[in-house]
User: What shape does this take?
Amino acid sequence: MKKWLNYLAPFSIVGLIAIFIWNVATHGQIDHPGKFTYEKKCAGCHGDKGEGIETLIPPLYAVDFAIQNFDSLPCIIKKGINRTIVVNGITYEQPMYGVEISQVELTNLINFMARDFFSLEREVSSDWVKEQLKSCK
Ligand code: HEC
Assistant: This one.
């Protein structure tokens, strides 16, 4: 056993803490775990910042529709949505197909959007998501 390694350990912990503090200080907040799922499964259509694409794909950032239909988000995401909807005053009618996603990913994703897109102080549980999914049409 190399004894000098034991002396280095405390420094690496200090280093990790320093990197963490640096991240929070430069980004303002820690990346939400749901952000990764958003980037992988939604950003291609809805945009990196939830800005949408013209009149084809509705935005998600600060939208009245998703906030008013918050309880339906699990179903909208998992089963898709295909009707004429009005989002922040603009009409959209392209279909969105259901997304292949696990219950845990869905929970993190909704919590990411609640915080970063909708500015809601709301945090849902995986049980809540499961309950909502029972009532999908
Ligand atoms: C292939 C493109 C595509 C992908 C991928 C996609 N969407 Fe959509 N989404 C749409 C379209 C198009 C609509 C409009 C549907 C309609 O008019 O019925 C929509 C509508 C929505 C709505 C309701 C309208 C609004 O803006 O509030 C929400 C919420 C939503 N999508 C969330 C998501 C989330 C979260 C993901 C990732 C898991 C995702 N979508 C992935 C195309 C997509």
In short: Residues 69 and 130 are 17 Å apart (CA to CA). The mean pLDDT is 92. Residues 41-42, 44-46, 57-60, 63, 65-66, 73, 76-77, 81-83, 85, 87, 92-96, 99, 109 surround heme C (CB under 6 Å).
